[in-house]
Amino acid sequence: MMIVGVYATLGVFLIRASSNPSANRSLILFAIVSSIVHAGIMTIQSLGAGMHMGHLMGDVPALILVAIVLGVLLPRTGGG
User: Fold this and answer.
1) C-alpha closest to that of 36 among 9, 77, 69
2) Distance (Å, rounded) from C-alpha 68 to C-alpha 37?
3) Residue 15 CA to its chain's centroid (Å)
4) Which residues 6+ apart lie within 8 Å of 71 measured at CB?
5) 45 pLDDT band (50/70/90 cuts)?
6) Counting Cβ atoms within 10 Å, is residue 30 exposed (0-12), middle (13-18) or buried (19+)?
7) Which is more confident, 17 or 76?
8) Which of 11, 23, 48, 63 could form a disulfide with 39 if both were Cys (CB 3.0 to 4.6 A apart)?
9) Whole-Å CA distances, 26 to 35, 41, 60
10) What is the distance between the alpha carbons of residues 36 and 32, in angstroms, rounded to a whole number?
């Protein structure tokens, strides 16, 4: 339940950040990177312990999808 609380809180702040994504770029980047890291850790844990294989079918793809969607929607900076 702890991770649910963390992601629910992050979700609220991401919704608020969506009104001005350029000003909240670091929060959105944090969500992208932390989702990828979380998916990587869950993948390693799932492969190491057979009882967690279900995470590879549900949680890991969902985290990667969130990272991809946020990355695609994040406005690019004007630096080239």
Assistant:
1) 69
2) 13
3) 14
4) 32
5) confident
6) middle
7) 17
8) 63
9) 14, 22, 23
10) 6
What pLDDT score does 3 carry?
Answer: 83
Instruction: Please give the backbone phi and psi of residue 13, each rounded to the nearest 5 degrees, phi first.
Output: -70, -35
pLDDT in tens, 59-73: 888 889 999 999 998
What is the per-residue pLDDT across 28-37, written as a single tens digit (0 to 9) for each? Answer: 999 999 999 9
Tell me what pLDDT residue 80 has.
Answer: 44
Residue-range domain boundaries for the chain: 24-73
56 pLDDT above the threshold of 80 = no
> d(Cα 25, Cα 54) in Å, to the nearest integer?
32
